[in-house]
Design a protein that fits this description.
The protein has 3 domains: 144 residues, P-loop containing nucleotide triphosphate hydrolases (Rossmann fold), CATH 3.40.50; 58 residues, no CATH class; 59 residues, Orthogonal Bundle (Arc Repressor Mutant, subunit A), CATH 1.10.10. The protein is an alpha+beta fold. It has 9 helices and 10 strands. A 4-stranded antiparallel β-sheet has the order 4-5-6-7, with helices on both faces. The chain has a 3-stranded parallel β-sheet with strand order 1-2-3, with helices on one face.
Length: 282
């Protein structure tokens, strides 16, 4: 994994401020606030006057530090980011020992529940090849067990400028599809639609393959360029090419393919100009 996962977190902060009116608390131990974090926030359009930081100049912050709870309660912060999690465990905590990690996460979970603050912990992966995703995080497996949602971020093997976010765990809702995003020096952060990558593919070294999704998109463009088509027939044509129904639906959403019902039959068609990316799942 590379540090582009931080851009994903920063984009979450930006959206939280702009669309949800959240007050974010952002703590990082690996990058300078002035020379790295602030420029990245500015580049993505964040209102930095609303981003809070606990001063760690004299005393390093830990997950057990009362300053964290006090800051969240006093400011009403709706989002708290700690990056990376290993840096905020404290010197006396062995991150590989469940009996030392578990109580900290229990109190952290209680803090989130009591305040309604979403706590985002950024972690790093170990170098173990072939292990399941649950065992690829640095430290105790209790890191993952305590989390309500776990996202993995990695590079696309097909395009080095593209990153893939895979939903690896979701305790409160169904897991979402893998999402693509890219970073460009000219256009900045941008979402690039969905793909059919899995956590296993992301961690195995084969990378998140988008081949089937791209194949499905080309099929849709070819078949629908002349007008609408029966949705059942689309699924049949895709099936003969080894494209699953799930992958075809992802491709439909990427392209903004819409569906209309006539009688008891559904028809699919490409979006009108200006409506791309607003497809409907069915």
């Amino acid at each position: 994994m590379d540090r582009t996962e931080q851009f994903l977190v920063i984009e979450t902060v930006v959206q939280g401020i702009g669309k949800k009116g959240l007050i974010p608390l952002f703590q990082t131990a690996e990058d300078g606030l002035a020379d790295t974090i602030r420029p990245r926030l500015d580049a993505l359009g964040a209102d930095c006057s609303k981003v809070l930081v606990i001063d760690e100049g004299e005393h390093e912050l830990t997950l057990d530090d009362q300053r964290l709870a006090q800051a969240i309660r006093k400011t009403g912060a709706g989002l708290a980011v700690l990056d990376p999690i290993q840096a905020y465990l404290g010197n006396g905590v062995d991150m590989h020992r469940a009996n030392e990690v578990r109580p900290i996460f229990k109190r952290l979970g209680q803090l989130a529940e009591q305040t309604g603050c979403a706590i985002v912990l950024v972690g790093h992966m170990n170098k173990t090849q072939g292990a399941k995703s649950a065992y690829r995080g640095l430290g105790s497996i209790d890191f993952r067990a305590a989390a309500r949602s776990v996202l993995l971020v990695g590079r696309s093997k097909d395009d080095e400028s593209v990153r893939v976010v895979v939903h690896d765990k979701s305790s409160l809702a169904p897991e979402g599809p893998a999402i693509l995003f890219s970073l460009d020096s000219q256009t900045g952060f941008s979402w690039n639609g969905f793909c059919d990558a899995t956590a296993s593919e992301l961690l195995s070294g084969s990378g998140p393959s988008t081949t089937k999704t791209e194949q499905a998109e080309r099929l849709l463009l070819d078949l629908l360029s002349g007008g609408e088509m029966l949705s059942d027939e689309l699924f049949d044509r895709a099936s003969t090419l080894g494209i699953s129904k799930r992958t075809l639906k992802i491709a439909k959403q990427n392209l903004g393919v819409t569906a209309v019902r006539r009688g008891d039959r559904w028809y699919s068609r490409l979006p009108e100009e200006g409506q791309e990316g607003k497809g409907v799942r069915y």
